[in-house]
Structures are given as C-alpha cells and as structure tokens.
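DATA SHEET
Item: assembly model
Revision: 1
Owner: S.N.
Input lines:
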Amino acid sequence: MNNLARIRERRENRNRWLLLTPALVILIFAASGPLLITLVYSFLTAGDYGGVKWEFSTDAWFNVFFQRDIFDDTLSFADAHLSIFWRSVKLSLLTTLGAVVLGFPTAYFIATRPKHHRDFWMLLIMIPFWTNLLIRTFAVMELIRNEGTLNTFLMTIGVIDAPLQILFTETAIIIGMLYVYLPLMVLPLYASMERLDFSLIEAGYDLYASRVSVLRRIILPLVKPGLIAGSILVFVPSLGAYVTPRVMGGGKQLMLGNLIELQFGQGRNWPLGAALSITLLAIVMVALLFYVRVAGREGGGHG
Amino acid sequence: MASDTGFDVKRQYGFSTIAVICFVSLYLPVILLVVYSFNAGSSVAIWEGFSLQWYRSAWANDQVQDATIRSLVIAFWAALISTSVAVLAALATTRVRRFRGYSAVFAAINQPLMVPEIVTAVALLIFFAGIKVQTGYTGLGYLILAHSAFCIPFAYLPIRARLQGMDLTLEQAAADLYASSFQVFRRITLPQLWPGILAGAMLAFVISLDDVVITEFVKSAGQDTLPTYMLGQLRRVVTPEVNAISTVLLALSVTMVIAFFFVTRIRK
C-alpha cells in the first residue's frame, strides 16, 4: 500500500513537470534567461560600435553613478544620470500622489453605489486600462498639444492669446502617466473599500464625529492596505515607463526607460544600458516585495 | 443606509464630484480622438465636417496594411501558443497539493507582469541579437516567441481562476467509472474549462496586439506592427490618419474586453 502510494505520487510528480515544461521553456527562452544574460552583459566591456567585448569590467556599474573627468581623472557623481534618476523618482511620486487624490474618491464613489451597479462602474474604469497604452497616451497628447483641442478651445473663448506649452514638459509626462495608470490605483482601493463595514462609520457619527474625522480616523486606517497596494501598483510602472515619457516628453525630458534605450541606440554602450536595466529592476523588485507583504497582510487580517 | 433623519453615513463631501471628473477625463481624450478620426479637414483639433477620407487613406497606405497583417499574425500565434501552454501549466498548478518548486514556477509564470517592460525589452534585444548573428534568421519568430512569453500570465490567470472554481467530484466520479485520465480531461475537465480558455486567449490576443515596447526593441528592420508604426509616425505632423488607425485598434480591444468580461461570468 505504501509502495503503491509512492509510485502514484512519483507518477503525479512526473506528469506535473511534463505539463509545466512547454510554459517553462518559453519563459526561460524569452523572459528569465535573457535577464540573466543582461546581468552578465553589465559586467562586460562596451564594443566600439555597439555590442560588447568579452572582457570583464565593472566600468558600466561605476558609470551608473560616477563619472571620471577625461582631463584630470577626478571623480564626480554622474550628474546626467543622477538627474534622470531623480526626475524618474520625482515624476513617479507625483503621479502616485495625483492618482491617490483622484483615485481615492473615485473608488469610494464606486464602493458606495448599490451592489448591482458597482460592476458597471468598475467596468468603466477597466475598459481604458485594457486598451492600448500608446493610443491612450496619444489621445492625451492630441488634447494638450499647442494646436490641440484644449489650447484651441481656450484661445477661441479668449482666455489665452498664445497656446500654453504643456506638451514636452514634465507636467505633460505626469498628466500622461496619471491618465494611463489611474485604474491601477482604483482597483485595489475599491477592493478594500467594498468590504468597508459601514456600521463602524455609523458608530463614529453617533459619537458626534465630523465627516472629516470619520474619513481620517475610520475609513483611512481601514483601507490603508488598499492605498499602499494602489500606490505601489502606480509607482512601479511609472518608474519604468518608456512610451509615455517618450511621447509626452518629446525626447527632451528623459526618464530611466529612455536613458536605458539611449544606451542601445545613439549611446552605443550596451553594458551601461544593461547595468541601468538591472538597477531599475532591483528598485522595482524591492517595491514589489513590499507590495506582496502588504497584500499578504490584507488577506489575513482586517475586519 | 440612510437613517430616518436623511443623514447619509456614506457621504463624503466632494468625492462624487471628483469621481465624475475622473470618469469624464478618462473618456474625453479617447472620445475626441475617435471624433476627429472622422474629420474632413487635416486638423485633429478643428472640426471641418464629417468624412471617412482618413480611413480610406489609412487603408490605401501599404505600410499600414503590412503592419496590420503583421500585428494580427503575431497576436494570433502568440495567443494560440501562450494559451495552450497556459492550460497545461494551470492544470499542473491548480487544485493540487503544494509541491516542491511551486513558488518558483508561479514566480516564473508571472515574471512578465513584474519585470518592467523596458527591462525585458532590452534583455530580449541582447539575447536575440546574439542569436541573429549566430543563425542569420531574422524572421517573425523572435516577435512571436517574445509575445508568447509575456502573454502567458494573461492567459494563465483566467484559466486558473476558472479551474479553482470547478469542483473535483465530477472528475473523481469519472475516474471511479474507469475513465482514463485523458478521457477525464477531454470529456469532463475541458468542457467546463473552455470559458476560461476562451477568456485567456482573448486577453493574450489583446495584450499582444497592444504591445509597443518589447516589439520596438525586438523587431528587425521592416517588421513594424501597428503600434510601433504609430509610434514612428508621432514624430511627424499628426494627421487624423493616425486617429483612424487608433480608432480601429480601440474598437477591436474594447470589443474583446467586453466579450472577456461576459465570458468570465458564464456560470460554472
């Protein structure tokens, strides 16, 4: 009997890995494997015309943060890279903040609709999210261009004489990212709010709390996991954004994604590009680990 | 929940206003984009009357036709491949006891969701550049392989969700009646699972169709898909032709997403 069970288990195990093989082969070839190669490339020497020479070097990693003066060999921080890092973090944080300001009330609005209407409102939030990111970015771009709908409208009614230059600024990038990533904030916030126990809120009012203190002392603490989850879900793709800063920033306001691309295009420094990618990946992984912990906690506790 | 005094405990001042602003601004730019694709003039901001000329000129453009066909071919293969392997993977990882390596497998399947697209794109560029030099092959295979990989989690998750909701008793009953494991799969599991498979395939198709970043880095010369073609066009003067192409793509995605929404609600 014991023997039989063991044979059966072994067969189950073999079948399981057979079933998994096709998926894993594709993923190793076109996802995990190439990442490892990227890590290797970040420790090689840059080729003269792109590509790499197979000589070990830590130059790429060094160049991520520092630069050596070509004349007197003095070290300094790589200002160009650091300012792009800083811009990426700053714009991603501002996008996240904007998403909280807009997304929190929206999620609350949906969560307080009658039960059979909520799916409809969530579908309205999700439809844009599942449509082409480039097209949505493009739609915002057409709206805020100098010859765009917004400026044309404002000039026709005489509010402004010359078009407002919004496109190709940092503001444009924030507007674009906010537009494309907002659903990622609403989704987890709504999931938290849907389970809100409104008797707690009623109790608050019975004890003469104002609406503001109910929001601050009861609602916010209860939906905090959703708020953190949403913030990470918006922050992470913003940090790695490539299309939106390229379209909205017009190649002038680079973010990390564009800096990486540059190393494989005009820059012709593949190891540096590889090192920058791994750096981005590391930051994102830290944020996601934090997310998993928060999401795990939410599943267990609360209510 | 309003109490008899008419006091609404759910209300927060200004929240509904912001929510309405949110919904309007989510849809307004896209609606304008669609509206101006029918513009008779060449502006995307000044309305000069209704016309289908931009659809006609987009359709007459050889590059657009090529890119459209290429996009559809890649999306078809990527959806087919990723859904097939995702079904197998879902069967191996759902409704089973946790096995050794479970978390690693789960992480591998979901990797494309976690790693920033630009990082994957660069990694694939490096990897495929090496293979291109070695083999000389520069066909669509690279794009199909790359798309299949990042579509796997999108195909896998709905299939897994469907499987999780199915109960094992029917399959056990069939096995008790001496059905072989393949018969059980074919006659019992598959018929119950198909809405999940359909949903997964549609999602994978849309995700592949919409991809810009990975395609932009992996494609060889002359392998533009519709989104990368549009990205290239943005540098030039924008005419409503791009709006027309966008509208067609949008219509396709929205139809798929709404269909997906209904397919996932088919009763278990």
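QC remark: Residues 2-68 of chain A form one domain.
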